[in-house]
Design goal:
The protein is mainly α. The chain folds into two domains: about 70 residues, Winged helix-like DNA-binding domain superfamily/Winged helix DNA-binding domain (Arc Repressor Mutant, subunit A); about 140 residues, Four Helix Bundle (Hemerythrin (Met), subunit A) (Up-down Bundle). It contains ten helices and three strands. A three-stranded antiparallel sheet has the order 1-3-2. The relative contact order is 0.12.
């Protein structure tokens, strides 16, 4: 696939930026499976670019723990770390619970309307079996709660935490029952948020984030080679 001039936004974006986005997307969507070997030369040839931007993209992906650069050996797509997932979930729970506390102090019909509109969009994605669309709306839903709580700065933290589990989420949502459960969780979160019931909202957040445990167990049973610990 050639990176055309139209796909490269000049001035602010570079070839390395586009390569980073493309490779990260393929990793997140499990097009590049954990343990897959990669090389600068192969990627440079695939995208018809020099090796320098590929090297820059690899370094950035290595810093995000998505690639593992091994001197004198092939670079590989990092396997999933359960310890890293536990750490990111701890951080995310702490942040989202504080956001929930603040959101319950807020009011505004328009903001609640936005939440309900997103739920309708999520339901539509499930009806069409549009898992990719549902996955995107999942993040948007949590971002909307941050906006409601006037905690926009928390969005980046949540995005970073979700990035560490995005591959697991994709595998989980591939099963209809799991995606439906996530949707039901969102409905419960919205209900408690509208009612400004902080106690139930916090409990719902904990339940929602705990769903990952069964996902890890399932995937490790069927794809143990995806994990490194």
């Amino acid at each position: 696939m050639t990176l055309t001039p139209d796909s490269l936004q000049t001035e602010r974006r570079t070839t390395a930026d586009d390569l980073f986005d493309k490779i990260r997307y393929d990793i997140d969507k499990m097009r590049l499976l954990p343990g897959t070997k990669m090389s600068e030369a192969d990627i440079a040839k695939q995208y018809e670019v020099s090796r320098q931007p590929v090297r820059e993209a690899f370094i950035r992906l290595n810093n995000l723990s998505l690639l593992q650069i091994r001197p004198q050996k092939a670079t590989i797509v990092r396997r999933i770390s359960k310890s890293a997932i536990r750490q990111s979930r701890f951080v995310r729970a702490a942040v989202e619970i504080e956001v929930a506390h603040r959101a319950c102090q807020m009011s505004g019909t328009r903001l609640f309307d936005d939440i309900h509109l997103q739920l309708k969009q999520q339901a539509a994605c499930l009806d069409k079996n549009d898992i990719a669309g549902f996955h995107a709306l999942d993040l948007a839903f949590h971002e909307s709660i941050c906006v409601m709580a006037k905690c926009e700065f928390a969005v980046d933290v949540i995005k970073d935490c979700k990035a560490k589990v995005s591959r697991l989420c994709l595998l989980s949502l591939a099963h209809d029952s799991d995606a439906i459960q996530v949707y039901k969780d969102h409905v419960a979160l919205a209900k408690h948020l509208v009612a400004q019931n902080e106690k139930k909202l916090v409990a719902a957040i904990r339940d929602h984030l705990s769903r990952l445990d069964s996902t890890i167990e399932y995937i490790q049973t069927h794809h143990s080679n995806y994990f490194d610990d």
